[in-house]
Amino acid sequence: MRSNTLERLAPLSGVLFFVLIVVTIVLTSDTPGATDKTADVVKYWTDNDTKEIIGNLVGGIAVVTLIWFGAVLKSTFSELGGEARRLALLSFAGALTIGVSGGIASSIGFAAADTAGDVPGTVTQSISVLNEDMFILFIAGVLIFNAANARLILGYGGFPRWMGWFSVLLLVISLTPIGFIGLFGSVIWVLIASIMMFRGQQGAPPQPAVATPESVT
Asked: What are the structural domain ranges in the chain?
């Protein structure tokens, strides 16, 4: 009975991820810029160490829920069979890449807050710069995740087609200078997909084309 309950609730890992990542963003979104002066950077991390430590710890937990959601999503897509199983693995790889990126970012932010005032100011500034400019791995994960999801949904179903086009939009945005919006959009995509899977409202797979005498010949 307990196992069945956990299995039924597993899709809600995406909802939990959404809540945790919002808390993380609220607590850690006002960090110093990469070009701020050393004194200002040290002052920020020293004055806000508790808030940043909590925010980054929450971010670490969010990583776990995202990877869990990625595994649930992979199982959903794998049920479509055929090539969808390989694409489902690619979708999970994208979620895993985003999760690993988030884990690294949270670790860097935690280190900056935990050591500020105890190490030379230039060290704190260096860690802060890494915290501010670590985005390439994030974008790579978003590209993989949305490319796989778009191909899966538009080609095989699993969710309503508009979810596939939403993934296409996020994929395109992620290739522009405002690629960070693609990351935030992917968080919303996860929330919607999580609720749909929990409520069992995924779209039915497209029906295969019926062979006609003309097509056979």
From this structure: 11-206
